[in-house]
Amino acid sequence: MITKIQGIFTPNVVPFHQDHRINEGELRRYVSWLIAKGVTGLYPNGSTGEFIRLSFEQRIRVVEIIADEVRGRVPILAGAAEPNIDLVLEACRRFADLGCRAVSVTGPYYFKVSQQSIEHYFRALAAQSPIDILLYNIPQFSNEIGLEVVKRLAADCPRIVGIKDSSRDMPRFMDTLNEVKPLRPDFSCLIGCEEILLPVLMMGGDGGTIATSGVVPEAVMKLYDRFLNGDIAEAKRIQFKLLEVIKTMFAAGNFPEGFREGVNLRGFDTGRGPQPMSPHEREHFNAIRGKLACLLAECGYAEAARECELFRSTRLAETRMSVPDVDAIVAEVLKRLTA
Amino acid sequence: MITKIQGIFTPNVVPFHQDHRINEGELRRYVSWLIAKGVTGLYPNGSTGEFIRLSFEQRIRVVEIIADEVRGRVPILAGAAEPNIDLVLEACRRFADLGCRAVSVTGPYYFKVSQQSIEHYFRALAAQSPIDILLYNIPQFSNEIGLEVVKRLAADCPRIVGIKDSSRDMPRFMDTLNEVKPLRPDFSCLIGCEEILLPVLMMGGDGGTIATSGVVPEAVMKLYDRFLNGDIAEAKRIQFKLLEVIKTMFAAGNFPEGFREGVNLRGFDTGRGPQPMSPHEREHFNAIRGKLACLLAECGYAEAARECELFRSTRLAETRMSVPDVDAIVAEVLKRLTA
Amino acid sequence: MITKIQGIFTPNVVPFHQDHRINEGELRRYVSWLIAKGVTGLYPNGSTGEFIRLSFEQRIRVVEIIADEVRGRVPILAGAAEPNIDLVLEACRRFADLGCRAVSVTGPYYFKVSQQSIEHYFRALAAQSPIDILLYNIPQFSNEIGLEVVKRLAADCPRIVGIKDSSRDMPRFMDTLNEVKPLRPDFSCLIGCEEILLPVLMMGGDGGTIATSGVVPEAVMKLYDRFLNGDIAEAKRIQFKLLEVIKTMFAAGNFPEGFREGVNLRGFDTGRGPQPMSPHEREHFNAIRGKLACLLAECGYAEAARECELFRSTRLAETRMSVPDVDAIVAEVLKRLTA
Amino acid sequence: MITKIQGIFTPNVVPFHQDHRINEGELRRYVSWLIAKGVTGLYPNGSTGEFIRLSFEQRIRVVEIIADEVRGRVPILAGAAEPNIDLVLEACRRFADLGCRAVSVTGPYYFKVSQQSIEHYFRALAAQSPIDILLYNIPQFSNEIGLEVVKRLAADCPRIVGIKDSSRDMPRFMDTLNEVKPLRPDFSCLIGCEEILLPVLMMGGDGGTIATSGVVPEAVMKLYDRFLNGDIAEAKRIQFKLLEVIKTMFAAGNFPEGFREGVNLRGFDTGRGPQPMSPHEREHFNAIRGKLACLLAECGYAEAARECELFRSTRLAETRMSVPDVDAIVAEVLKRLTA
User: CB distance from B55 to chain C under 8 Å?
Assistant: First the structure.
């Protein structure tokens, strides 16, 4: 019997070599680390995994590596948002063969597409897919999958087993719980918005795809565990504590760079993402990295401690440097005076 | 000692006579009914009160009537969003004289205004207002009051005692709780989004300005009471139950018409709002009214039961009518046959 | 016989005294100066006139002053966008009595309102207004008046005699010309977007409400005159030349402050607008003022020349100051050396 | 010597077989037809060519076919917007080898990316591309390439030879002409908005990528020819005449389906696009197809005449059918009467 999708799934960043090839060794090491830290499952090819910036072959390869490394230890939800329905189905077949639990598919991106067309698209997918499908709602970046469409798909398509909602829209999530669950009690409602994981769980959500769980899996899994055990006070404390970490990673700009850096600070050679960063942004980014290192160090993650210290001493040095360097000036003046 | 603003405040709709004058009698009767039903306080001149469609004199008059009717039984938060700072301050003085607990002021509307300008605006208000101020964040309709601005105002301006956030943005509300409360433990964080009242309360919010509490105050106050008493299961049941009522009132279109109709169904002669409705919209609206009546009847509000029954029998009649009127056809055919 | 509305109408800024009262003297002097410079007509209570930040009485007063000063020399289009239909009609009656040519009315602002409701609203206005009406489309700030609505209103309502479109949407303006003119050849299509005045005229538009004509009426009227006389090359030269002035005024932020400053630089005591500006913005603003002064001086407007010179010398002084002040350092060092 | 890019470039739709393979035969026939009709050049892999819905290999293949069919008769601007910079450069190399005149590259899509990052991205491209680059600004679907970035790129990167602006923002296009041309007189400013082709040409634009020229190349090329020959009146007549055709094709929904249907009506077997359409949309679409056929027939395109006639007679039949079928009713009634 296939069980409902529940818990915390980690949307992994992809580590790259300098020549832009996927760093398979680090990806494997990272994934096994995540499993050791207790995450419920993995979620490759999400937005955090920058699926949109990889080639089709790279997206398949990411899931191959992860499936091979995981070897059934935890379920995999594999992103299969491809440019057209033929390629989505091709990805579905591959991911089914690799033993993934389900695929996740966004609404079409780039062009604006009508709700009718989106519904028709998912019906066609559901009719032909050899693997369960999660609707992936992320209206910031692709066409919204409206709640009315979700309801009709949930009612009619057994292949569609849930929604991962990254819209950051809690009122909509409440309506989803209220209107879809009665139609399909097995329909999984996952949140893709780190800041509201706990309120979503408390209202009856089934879990989330939480990028922060790729950086501080200990904290996110503890929050989830405390929630499951009814220790709401401690779960709340952790949720609020996480907010600053989350905000800092988003403040890095150029999502998902802040999250990649968080993973790096936990000891993985993540390399650089496919979207180049300007030197000026790189500078801002390094300051964020320092701040993040100190946040992680404060949380007790030893890997980040050295980096934090380094950051603090550099800042001190910079502050000192900006104080007029009297010695140098004196030397210069004396030189002029004696010239 | 002045206490922190907490609980459920009802943003009242304004009943009108046919000639567009405020229906003072019904407004008084409505307000006293709300108090009898246990709402924490009143919130005139909010968006639900269509402050933007009233004249300055009407806005003042609404608060005068309510203050006179309330006579200190519950606190009043009075909307004082006026076209310019002189008029806001004039309203502040009037509402202070009337004994209101605080005023609520939106960011400037119509023009786009910078965050710096908004901060400067509220600082100027805070420096001169004789009454406490709530920031009213409603970016759908007026310039957003950014969280950074809120933090600086909270830190520097004792006159600014809280925020009423109607942005429907729960992640932002979480950040507000996390970043403002440590600076100002007395700073009140109220939500203005009915759908997420309970999650907000559970995460530490201080209450809300909840338009639905103007229609079914019994249910909203019971939710709040159950929350305060730790009966989360029942509070959740009520929150979810309310979602359909809320959705129906929004589905009426032309906010706040659905809420006005809800109040009407509870037995008040609300009249029609200042924004005219087209005949076609009126028709759609009547269907919504019927549905709302039945929802309220199901919840046990007897006033709505007759209306619901009427609605159901009309629908039946309409359905019947659309069945080909055999008698008429027979008559016609016979006429032709015998012609 | 009433003639079609055509030409360049100036949306005037309102000069204020320090105590926020309207500076009647300067307003009169400014209006007469505009007429002397040849503008086709005046357009008080537009967005440039910050109608939204004035009280109802102030809006009426602005038109009274202008009507009295103009004394029929040029036509007046008076903004009558008020919070509700009763107040719009009250303004219509007043402006009709003052001899205005027409009123201009935006779609409702603040709340989102359906197209049906907007159509119904303008039909109700058209049925009761004693004065011709221009639709004022400015979707940046108020509900859009969709083209389908414009077409039906133009076809059915003789009182509605034109549209002033500030949407900055040239494709829509093209469609308006193409679809409305055949229904109502007398329907006036005015543009409210300075940057595309000439293309609009060349495609058959009837003119514009051009805020820039309140700052450099000579240039805008010359552009219009050159266009009317078929000297497109010179009209183009002026249009392009104006772009930098326009951009500079918008770059001041807090619209319409840049335009107010432009009028000030032409020699009018405009005072400060009702929306306060933060000290930091004021600083940015002063730099913009300097740049604008130099642009105007280059165009030959002598009033701005002194200001430009002042600006340039200040900048020079600032640049000089930022060069390390070697003398001061030497003095300091010598003092230390000899200490 | 390489000449500046000027004139009308046709963004072709891609014809497909029923099994979703590219219909090479029809693509060749279509392209040669366009050349015969006099279009300046071709623009494969634009939004009209649905580049986003093809695989990388298909995008390359489309240009291979077209380059082979064109054989240097007209210049080709080939869309090279790929998921990451390595793939863009790979496409650039292929298209350079195929003899294309230039490539066109959008800002990154899906994720929001900062202006700094966009600038850095295009600088990196320009440094390594073996072929000239056109910036493709289409903020509806991908990150806007801000004017400040365009200016810096134009000033510094000889490889970047122009912009194709599909933003529908004429004020911005005016500023582009005004601010970029003085820096780089050879910089080509093309419009990608059919409705404003003529105003853009009159103000100094270099031409456009005009999807409508793929449907009625005769009309668009005549407009351009009349403009070049100073017959503005006739050019205006054509521009306005085209507006209804354009609007009808957009009204089909699911861009670029309306344009695909237009090409089909001109006698090409375009097949169906990669994005499936719901049955309900298909119905709406067929009505649009009929309307479009009649518009084209009125313009004298004989291929569309039969389709138009068919459409008109079907509509008549439908209208007839909706009239109560008296005979059937009589039969039924008589049956009942005699039962």
Answer: yes
